[in-house]
């Protein structure tokens, strides 16, 4: 199955102000976020992407725009299920204030029990379920259109990406707060018939290793204990792989 590159949006005005943006409208990238998005496009230029899927929120759409500017042929799709968690009555409030709320401790220590207050609030369990379902659905669509070795990008939000990574690692949601993903970082997951492989987590460096290997090289790597990203069998490389050629 395809490799999905999960990109957290660049730093937003809400991030800079310490505000929980949620689904608030008009939350844009700040100057640092725009620079991060430009750098991201350059980092990803070495990876032949099949498509880009983005959250509908402005900060994600702005993050992928430099990539689309340099690759106008790249299909782009909007997916509500990878939109930010619906924080309900917490939306738009300062994180420093929210830390005094009784629910804060649940979000930190027992997130599978956390349900955000208000008519628009959702549980973190529901957030994870919709996001993982979205990735699985897009994996199938991308594989059908572009083949099992395709790579595509999803631009989403911190809690969404952490929850997807936790699912890929087989971690209970109660442990997902142990994962950190910075603005414009890349988390890459290679899905196979038997298990996902986490290839990158919160990576802000070079992404050359995420480019699919040529088929002949992939075969050789598989036969000689090559890297897991090139192995389509779904088996892990015993002893560890050889890394990027």
From TrEMBL:
InterPro entries: His_Pase_superF_clade-1, His_PPase_superfam, Phosphoglycerate_Mutase, Phosphomutase_MSMEG4193_put. This is Histidine phosphatase family protein. Keywords: Hydrolase. Residues 213-245 are annotated as: Disordered. SMART domains: PGAM. Pfam families: His_Phos_1. The keyword Hydrolase applies. Residues 213-230 have a biased composition (Low complexity). It comes from Streptomyces fildesensis. CDD domains: HP_PGM_like.
């Amino acid at each position: 199955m395809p490799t999905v590159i999960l990109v957290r949006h660049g730093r937003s005005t809400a991030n800079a102000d310490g505000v929980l943006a949620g689904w608030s409208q008009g939350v844009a990238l700040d100057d640092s976020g725009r620079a991060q998005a430009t750098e991201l496009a350059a980092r990803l230029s070495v990876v032949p992407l099949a498509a880009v899927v983005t959250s509908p929120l402005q900060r994600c759409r702005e993050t992928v725009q430099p990539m689309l500017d340099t690759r106008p042929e790249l299909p782009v799709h909007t997916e509500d299920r990878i939109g930010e968690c619906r924080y309900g009555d917490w939306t738009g409030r300062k994180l420093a204030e929210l830390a005094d709320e009784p629910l804060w401790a649940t979000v930190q220590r027992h997130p599978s029990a956390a349900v955000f207050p208000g008519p628009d609030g959702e549980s973190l369990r529901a957030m994870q379920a919709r996001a993982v379902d979205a990735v699985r659905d897009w994996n199938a669509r991308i594989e059908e259109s572009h083949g099992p070795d395709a790579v595509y990008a999803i631009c989403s939000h911190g809690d969404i990406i952490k929850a997807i990574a936790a699912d890929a690692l087989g971690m209970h949601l109660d442990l997902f707060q142990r994962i950190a993903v910075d603005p414009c970082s890349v988390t890459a997951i290679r899905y196979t018939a038997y298990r996902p492989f986490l290839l990158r987590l919160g990576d802000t460096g070079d992404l050359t290793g995420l480019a699919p290997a040529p088929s002949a090289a992939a075969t050789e790597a598989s036969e000689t204990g090559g890297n897991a990203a090139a192995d389509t069998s779904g088996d892990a490389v015993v002893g560890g792989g050889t890394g990027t050629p």
